[in-house]
Write a structure and sequence with these properties.
Elements (H helix, E strand, L loop, with lengths): L1 H5 L2 H26 L2 H20 L4 H8 L5 H25 L4 H26 L3 H24 L5 H26 L9 H22 L1 H9 L2 H35 L3 H37 L8 H27 L2 H25 L4 H30 L5
Helix pairs in contact: 2-7, 2-11, 2-12, 3-5, 3-6, 3-8, 3-9, 3-11, 4-6, 4-9, 5-6, 6-7, 6-8, 7-8, 9-14, 10-11, 11-12, 11-13, 12-13, 13-15, 14-15
Length: 405
């Protein structure tokens, strides 16, 4: 059993994503230490807006690229770039008009979203080809860049948000350009040009769930500046980096490997084997993550950050609970995406948007109890999405493998 778990693709992906998560968490901790809470809040908000942009920006092309393996050519590149640019303009307007960020930060967010959205499509191209190392390298580079820029800011004594956001934006743009050049040279054998009608139809179905889940994932970061303050957002960002990032990385790693594996199997027995192996691996890593957070988080808050951010056990336990729910949701939603029909994708998408409404209501009510109330309020939405996703996953599984042993 142990040997099978070690060979698990989800476990390997989770370990690889964990490396990026360590870089992301360390970068956040260092930035939280050297920047003022307000400046750190600006960096956190810029990254949160980018997460929304990189989800909406591909317009579902990342799912189409993973499921259908289209040729990497001018047509695919123009589709990806057009969708990314339109999205980036919208995010920039939100950043300036709604959050009142400076013009320099808004311009950097525009470039960051274009780079990250096109990079995500490129990641999916490698992922669909089964080249996980290349895909993970492109998808995780920004986590390591955040650590590098934090070190540079500390060494060079550049304690401002514009410097941090500019380096991260440049990293996204450069990694996207390199990735597309690499993909065009190495993965086009036997591929056909993308069908634009199929891409728009299937991409739109996949987009709904992707955007809704990403909005739910970033809900606290996007809402806290309006119902609280940038300083409160800074506190949440530190909590999420230390106590939430292990679960975020596990959620991403599981989804990363499970989708292409489930798409490739042709029998119910093989699919059950994949699900059981990957599920057991995810559960084991999740249990280890809980222990690590319980042991390490209080020490980090107390010693590395010198009590700059007041984070007690109530917030740590809330972060652990919501983190475990996210892992469950990621597993079930990925199973629906891999095995489900277009109708199943629409169903999980509708459910996700309903959960966003529940999250808003839960946050509005929970905010009277402070940050911990906000976490549990949004957590209610994760419970519903994970439960509904599991139901749809089971139904999609039975439908796809009907008649198969």
């Amino acid at each position: 059993m142990l040997a099978r778990l070690i060979k698990s693709d989800s476990l390997r992906s989770a370990v690889a994503f964990a490396g990026g998560g360590v870089g992301f968490a360390a970068g956040n901790i260092l930035l939280a230490k050297i920047l003022s809470p307000a400046s750190f809040g600006v960096v956190t908000l810029a990254l949160a807006l980018n997460q929304f942009g990189l989800t909406f920006g591909p317009f579902g092309l990342e799912v189409v690229a993973n499921r259908h393996r289209p040729r990497v050519d001018r047509r695919l590149a123009l589709l990806a770039l057009s969708a990314a640019t339109i999205t980036a303009l919208g995010v920039a307007v939100i950043a300036g008009a709604y959050y009142h960020l400076s013009a320099a930060i808004v311009a950097l967010i525009l470039a960051m979203v274009i780079g990250s959205a096109t990079n995500r499509v490129c990641v999916a191209v490698f992922q669909g080809e089964g080249r996980f190392r290349a895909a993970m390298s492109l998808s995780q580079v920004h986590n390591y860049v955040l650590l590098v820029v934090a070190i540079l800011a500390a060494v060079l004594v550049i304690h401002n948000d514009i410097f941090v956001v500019s380096v991260v934006a440049a990293a996204y743009v450069l990694s996207s350009g390199l990735g597309w050049w690499w993909a065009r040279r190495t993965v086009n054998s036997g591929r056909e040009p993308i069908n634009a009608v199929l891409a728009l139809r299937e991409g739109a179905a996949a987009l709904g769930i992707g955007v809704a889940v990403q909005l739910l994932s970033q809900f606290e970061r996007l809402a806290i500046p309006k119902i609280g303050s940038l300083s409160m957002l800074g506190t949440y960002a530190v909590l999420a980096a230390v106590a939430g990032s292990p679960f975020r990385m596990l959620q991403a790693g599981t989804s990363f490997s499970l989708l292409p594996r489930l798409r490739s199997v042709t029998s119910a027995a093989a699919a059950r084997s994949v699900i059981l192996r990957e599920g057991a691996a995810a559960a084991c890593v999740c249990a280890v993550s809980v222990i690590v957070v319980i042991v390490a988080a209080p020490w980090i808050f107390r010693n590395l950050l010198s009590g700059k951010y007041i984070i007690g056990w109530d917030l740590i336990w809330a972060s652990i609970a919501v983190g475990m729910l996210k892992v469950w949701e990621g597993f079930s939603t990925t199973a629906v995406t891999a095995c489900g029909s277009a109708k199943s994708l629409v169903a999980i998408s509708v459910l996700a948007w309903v959960c966003l409404v529940i999250a808003a209501a839960g946050m509005a009510y929970g905010s009277r109890y402070g940050l911990v109330g906000i976490l549990y309020g949004v957590g209610l939405a994760w419970v519903l999405l994970a439960s509904g996703g599991t139901f749809l996953a089971v139904r999609s599984f039975k439908t796809r493998f009907a008649g198969s042993p």
